[in-house]
Design brief:
Distance between the termini: 59 Å
Strand content: 5-15%
Largest sheet: 3 strands, parallel
Low-confidence stretches: none
Helix content: 40-55%
Shape: globular
Radius of gyration: 18 Å
Number of helices: 5
Order of helices and strands: HEHEHEHH
Length: about 120
């Protein structure tokens, strides 16, 4: 059992409210490499997220590529014993992504004409 009362563990897979509260209230998070959804949700909370990479030889190539990209963008850091809380801003990334999506929609005339 944990003796540090500042550490909270999420163990109930069927309680999304508690999970959302945990993400929104934390000042840093540790996630494992085996769930891209879990990593993405943690990053979206804009709280510093640390990736705990275990059994790396089992990690699929597409997961490795995902981890590399989010690390390059500064959205996650590797787990270490000397972790310090940090914040992540998704504003610039989300704005860029929104622009790309809207440009793609506008460039696809059949879609644009069918929506009008």
């Amino acid at each position: 059992m944990l003796k540090n009362h500042n550490i909270k563990l999420f163990t109930d897979l069927f309680d999304p409210v508690t999970y959302g509260n945990l993400l929104s209230e934390s000042n840093m998070q540790i996630v494992t490499w085996d769930s891209i959804s879990m990593i993405s949700e943690a990053i979206s909370s804009e709280t510093g997220t640390f990736l705990y990479e275990f059994e790396e030889e089992s990690c699929p190539k597409r997961y490795q590529l995902f981890h590399q990209k989010v690390k390059q963008k500064g959205f996650i850091k590797s787990f270490s014993r000397k972790m310090e809380p940090y914040n992540v801003s998704m504003t610039s990334y989300n704005s860029e992504l929104k622009s790309k999506i809207l440009n793609k929609i506008e460039s696809n005339l059949w879609f644009k004409n069918s929506v009008s």
